[in-house]
Recover the amino acids of this structure.
C-alpha cells in the first residue's frame, strides 16, 4: 500500500488520450466502491464507466492552522460533441470569495488561465476543442483556509432561520473537527443552453454533480482521522509522523472530506454494505443508536426501493449550525452534534439562551410537573434523531441515485426524502406512530410557521426565491412532502409503492424532473393520472396549505408544545385558556 497510495494521484493522462476500450486500473480501483452486481446496472444507465469524469485528489490538512492544501486533477471526456470549455465549482466561496484559492492551473503540462466568473465558479476556455472520444485533463493547486465554526446548538428550539445565510457548518473548523465540504473543485452540470447550474444560495443544499470517479489521498497529523466517501484503500504513516488516508469512490455525485480527532466508531453490515457510525468519544451510546437507526433505515429502503449501489456507507457526527439536523452526500451523511447531546441532556439545547442551573431550580420547585416538559423533550428528540437519520439515509436515493437540481428544484428530492423517512417510521413502528410523527414534524411545523407570521406560498421554486430558512423549511420540508401523502391516499399503497420503486429504477444514476415521480405514479394507476397532476399543482405550485392542513386551534398548538408532557388545554386554568384563544387569531394574521 505504501507504493500504491502515491499512484492514486500521480497518474499522468495526456490530453486527447482515447478513453474508450478496457477499463483502466484507476477506474477499477474506483469501482471497488460499487457492489459487483451494481456495476452492470450503472453501466446500463450511464454508458461505459470508463467515460465518467475522474478526480484525482491529493490534500494535506493542518488542523492548527485550519488549512488544507494540495492538488486536484480533473479529467472530463468529450462525448457527443467537441469540448470547448471546462467549468469548476467551489462551493465554500459562496460565504467568502477567498476561502478556497486555485492556482498553478495546467492543461496537461501547459499553464492555463482560470477565469473566476463568480465567487464559486471558474472557467477555462480551451484553445483547441477536444474532439469526441478524447479527454481534457486540468490540474490545479488548491489552498483552503477554513473559518472557525459557530457554536452548535439550539437545534429545534431556535425556530429561527432569519439570520444571515450560510452553509450550516459545511466548511468550518472546531478544535476536534474540520469539515472540508466543497474543497475539491468539481465540474457542475450544464443546462440545455450549455450554462452551468446555479451555485449555492445560502439556503438549502450546496450543489450536486454528475456521477464521477474519485481517487483521493489525504494526509493529517497523528491522532486525526479522515472520513470521506468511498472504499478505504489504506492508511500509511509518513516519516514525519503524519498519517495518509486513501479513498476510492465510484459513480458518486459529490466527494465530501471530513477530519476528526478523538472520535470512535461502530460498524455493522446490511446486504453487503459496511455501515460505519463515527462519533465523539463522549457520545458513544447515542452513536451506537445512530448506527442502529441507519442500518434499520437502509435495510427498509433496500427492501422497497432497491439496493444501495455502494459497498460503504458512513454516518458522521458533525457540529452543524443554523438549526440543521443533518447533511447528505453520496455514501456519507452527517448528523448534528446538537442531536447527539440533546437526547442525553435536553438542557444543552438552551444553554446559550438561559441560565441552566436557575432553570433547573425553577422546574424543581414545581415538583414532578416541572421536569415533565424536559423529560418528554428527551423522548421527542430521540424520535427526531431517528427521523433525521432516516431522512438522510433516504437522500442516498433522492438525490444520491435519482439526481435532481438542489438549487433550482429543491422540492424534488427534499420532499421525497422527508416522506420516505415517514414511510420508514410507519414500516418500523406502525401507522399510529407514523401519523403522530406526520402531525408533529410536518403539519405542526407548518402551523407554527403560520403562527409566527409566515405566509403560505409556492413550494416549487429555487432556493434563492425563499426569504429565509424558516419559510424554506415550512414549505419545502413540511408542506411539500404531503403531496406524496395525498397521492398515496388517491392511488392506494400498492400503486404508490410500485410507482416509487419504478421511479428509482428508471432514474437511477440519471437526472429526474419535477413531473417524473407523478408520471411513474400515473403508470401504476392510469385512471388517476389527471388527478395526480392536479394534486402536484395544488401542493407544490399553489398556496392551499391552510385549506389542506387546517388552521391550528388551541388544542393542536398546546399539544405540539406540550408533546405529551401534560401541558395540554386541560391543564390550563380558564383565564389562561381564554387569553390564548383570544390571541391565537391575531397570531395567525386573521
Amino acid at each position: 500500500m505504501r507504493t500504491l497510495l502515491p499512484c492514486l494521484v500521480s497518474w499522468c493522462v495526456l490530453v486527447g488520450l482515447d478513453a474508450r476500450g478496457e477499463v483502466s486500473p484507476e477506474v477499477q480501483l474506483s469501482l471497488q466502491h460499487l457492489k459487483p452486481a451494481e456495476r452492470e446496472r450503472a453501466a446500463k444507465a450511464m454508458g461505459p464507466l470508463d467515460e465518467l469524469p475522474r478526480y484525482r485528489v491529493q490534500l494535506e490538512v493542518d488542523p492548527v492552522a485550519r488549512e488544507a492544501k494540495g492538488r486536484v486533477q480533473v479529467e472530463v471526456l468529450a462525448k457527443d460533441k467537441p469540448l470547448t470549455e471546462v467549468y469548476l465549482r467551489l462551493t465554500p466561496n459562496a460565504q467568502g470569495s477567498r476561502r478556497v484559492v486555485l492556482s498553478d492551473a495546467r492543461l496537461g503540462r501547459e499553464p492555463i488561465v482560470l477565469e473566476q466568473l463568480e465567487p464559486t465558479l471558474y472557467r477555462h476556455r480551451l484553445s483547441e476543442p477536444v474532439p469526441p472520444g478524447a479527454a481534457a485533463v486540468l490540474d490545479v493547486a488548491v489552498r483552503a483556509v477554513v473559518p472557525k465554526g459557530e457554536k452548535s446548538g439550539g437545534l429545534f428550539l431556535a425556530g429561527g432561520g432569519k439570520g444571515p445565510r450560510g452553509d450550516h457548518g459545511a466548511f468550518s473548523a472546531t478544535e476536534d473537527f474540520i469539515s472540508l465540504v466543497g474543497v475539491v473543485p468539481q465540474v457542475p452540470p450544464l443546462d440545455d443552453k450549455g450554462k452551468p447550474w446555479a451555485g449555492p444560495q445560502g439556503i438549502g443544499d450546496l450543489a450536486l454533480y454528475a456521477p464521477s470517479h474519485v481517487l483521493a489521498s489525504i494526509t493529517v497529523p497523528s491522532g486525526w482521522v479522515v472520513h470521506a466517501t468511498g472504499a478505504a484503500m489504506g492508511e500509511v504513516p509518513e516519516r514525519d509522523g503524519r498519517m495518509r488516508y486513501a479513498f476510492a469512490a465510484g459513480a458518486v455525485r459529490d466527494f465530501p472530506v471530513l477530519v476528526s480527532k478523538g472520535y470512535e466508531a461502530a460498524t455493522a453490515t446490511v446486504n453487503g454494505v459496511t455501515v460505519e457510525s463515527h462519533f465523539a468519544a463522549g457520545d458513544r451510546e447515542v452513536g451506537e443508536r445512530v448506527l442502529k437507526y441507519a442500518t434499520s433505515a437502509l435495510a427498509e429502503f433496500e427492501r422497497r426501493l432497491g439496493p444501495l449501489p455502494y459497498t460503504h456507507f458512513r454516518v458522521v457526527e458533525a457540529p452543524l449550525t443554523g438549526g440543521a439536523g443533518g447533511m447528505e452526500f453520496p455514501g456519507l451523511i452527517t448528523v448534528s452534534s446538537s442531536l447527539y447531546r440533546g437526547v442525553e441532556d435536553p438542557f444543552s439545547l438552551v444553554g446559550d439562551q438561559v441560565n441552566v442551573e436557575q432553570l433547573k431550580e425553577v422546574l424543581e420547585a414545581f415538583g414532578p410537573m416541572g421536569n415533565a416538559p424536559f423529560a418528554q423533550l428527551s423522548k421527542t428528540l430521540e424520535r427526531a434523531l431517528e427521523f433525521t437519520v432516516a431522512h438522510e439515509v433516504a437522500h442516498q436515493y433522492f438525490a444520491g441515485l435519482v439526481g435532481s437540481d438542489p438549487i433550482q428544484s429543491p422540492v424534488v428530492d427534499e420532499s421525497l426524502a422527508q416522506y420516505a423517512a415517514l414511510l420508514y417510521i410507519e414500516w418500523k413502528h406502525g401507522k399510529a406512530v407514523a401519523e403522530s410523527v406526520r402531525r408533529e414534524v410536518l403539519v405542526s411545523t407548518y402551523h407554527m410557521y403560520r403562527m409566527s407570521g409566515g405566509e403560505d406560498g409556492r413550494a416549487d421554486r429555487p432556493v434563492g426565491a425563499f426569504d429565509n430558512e424558516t419559510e424554506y423549511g415550512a414549505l419545502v420540508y413540511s408542506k411539500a412532502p404531503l403531496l406524496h401523502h395525498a397521492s398515496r391516499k388517491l392511488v392506494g399503497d400498492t400503486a404508490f409503492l410500485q410507482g416509487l420503486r419504478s421511479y428509482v429504477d428508471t432514474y437511477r444514476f440519471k437526472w429526474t424532473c419535477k413531473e417524473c415521480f407523478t408520471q411513474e405514479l400515473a403508470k401504476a394507476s392510469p385512471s388517476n393520472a389527471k388527478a395526480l397532476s392536479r394534486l402536484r399543482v395544488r401542493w407544490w405550485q399553489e398556496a392551499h396549505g391552510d385549506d389542506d392542513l387546517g388552521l391550528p386551534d388551541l388544542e393542536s398548538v398546546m399539544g405540539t408544545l406540550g408533546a405529551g408532557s401534560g401541558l395540554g388545554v386541560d391543564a390550563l386554568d380558564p383565564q389562561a385558556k381564554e387569553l390564548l384563544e383570544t390571541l391565537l387569531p391575531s397570531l395567525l394574521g386573521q
Observations:
- The radius of gyration is 24 Å.
- Confidence is low (pLDDT under 50) at residues 1-21, 155-163, 562-568.
